[in-house]
Amino acid sequence: MLFTFGSYSSILLISFTQGIIYSILLLVKAIKTENKSNYWLSLFIFLCSLYIAPWMLGFAGWYDNQPYRDFLFYMPFQHLFFMGPIIFFYTQSLLNPSFQFSKKDVLHLLPGILYLLYILSIWVYDKFIFGDYYFYADGMDKDFEDWYQKLGLLSMIAYFIMSIRYYNVYKKLMYQVVSYADSILFQWIKNYLIAFLVMLLLPILFDIIRYFYPEMNSYQGSWWFFLFFSIVMYYIAITGYSNPTNAVIPFKISLFDKQPILLLDENNTENAESVIDIEYETFEENNSPEIDYWKSKIEHLIQSEKLYQNPELTLTDLSKKLETNVSVISKTINQGFRMNFNDCINTYRIEAIKDSFANGEHKKSTLLGIAYDCGFNSKATFNRAFKKNTGKTPKEFVAAL
Predict the structure, then answer these.
(1) Taking CA 400 as the corner, what is the angle to CA 395 and CA 401, rounded to the nearest 5 degrees?
(2) DSSP three-state, residue 173
(3) How far is CA 285 from CA 20, 244, 297, 380, in A?
(4) Looking at the chain, which terminus has fewer C-beta neighbours within 10 angstroms, N or C?
(5) CA–CA distance from 194 to each of 163, 197, 247, 290, 389 (Å)?
């Protein structure tokens, strides 16, 4: 097989090979762990590797020799219409354990499928009807046509925005339904979305560079774009393979509705009484008798049983103890306490901590030990919640006693 080794082709070959290897590793991990998100990340890294391939093979001499030239012409390598939807599916599978690829999700892949059919029709016409280059008479690979590159970039930008929207909705929901929201906001998700954003900005950045430095319009100048793209791909691959993200709260949402969100049970079945309104700020300030009734019951239950000491307390736990549905409890906390569930429980935890300080417990135990006893599960969450509630850090508060 022809492959002319040089500095340009060899470096991209390393990136391409590493991408394929990590794609396989992620696939194996997905099969072993049954984690659906790894399937999507494996596919995304595979497509990123293919994206690099034409430039790598071009520098290796394929565009200058047959039959390699025809292979590059008629085999689509840059699947721009697939990359955006796949990163969006990856986001959903990371955050929502109930996510299932459905028939309607195929619509997201339709532009990519149509592009494949377009390339197939070109190949059939050139090879079996015209018998020569017709569509490729200009010698330009269709993957690099301006319309396809621009529309592909717009598609990825749209799906990046949808992924950001999905993550923001997820964050709001977690603050409404669990008392440990900070620990499941998953830094990896923020990191890979930033990395994907860098991928989207690279073409724009290099267009600006080419404007000021026309020499970058050369084939060798474009190599730098694919090198930086490879670096970002490699970062997503290696950190994505090692990330421990494992969401446990199943839900159902529509990205185009601000509210409500349907919280699913363990069997991923829907329940009309499990609708969560994440936009609690829209509630009126005057409480109804029903809200006052449930607020009193919630206060008594949390204080009498010290439920705040449970670091994994959820809205569902509270609703089961009160023998009602999560929708009622969520609305009561939002409207009655004027805060979300996470902040509400943290308020009880902080009050318990302040009582411990008043009783001199900080002289016998560490501040973090007291925080853990009162239900916090991390030092960072404890410090952040305490400062938000009191305006002081725990050390500053103790020093002022």
Answers:
(1) 105
(2) helix
(3) 56, 41, 19, 32
(4) N
(5) 11, 5, 20, 44, 31
Do the Cβ atoms of 184 and 176 come closer than 8 Å? no
Residue whose C-alpha is closest to residue 280's, from 349, 345, 341: 341
**Cβ contact 188:240 at 8 Å:** yes
> pLDDT means per 10 residues in the chain (401 residues)?
92 96 96 92 97 95 93 95 97 92 95 97 93 88 94 97 93 91 87 95 92 85 93 95 83 73 68 67 64 93 95 93 90 90 95 93 90 93 92 90 76
User: Strand pairing partners for 252?
Assistant: 262
Sequence-separated (6 or more) residues with CB below 8 Å from residue 122? 74, 135, 136, 142
Tokens 């009622």 appear where?
328
Greatest Cα-to-Cα distance within the chain, rounded to the nearest angstrom: 91
What gap in Å lies between CA 257 and CA 251, rounded to an integer? Answer: 14
Token pair recorded at residue 15 = 């990136």
Q: Are 132 and 142 in contact (CB under 8 A)?
A: no
Write out the two tokens for 112: 């990519």
- Residue 175 has, within 13 A of its CA and on its CB side, a CA count of 17
User: What pTM was estimated for this model as a whole?
Assistant: 0.90
Tokens standing for 256? 């185009």
- pLDDT at position 142: 93
Which residue is associated with the tokens 């999507």? 40
DSSP for 343-401, please give it: HHHHHHHHHHHHHHHHTTGGGTS-HHHHHHHTT---HHHHHHHHHHHHSS-HHHHHHT-
* Strand partners of residue 127: none
Cα R_g (the chain), whole angstroms: 27
pLDDT for the residue 217: 83
* Whether residue 76 has a cis bond before it, omega within 30° of 0: no
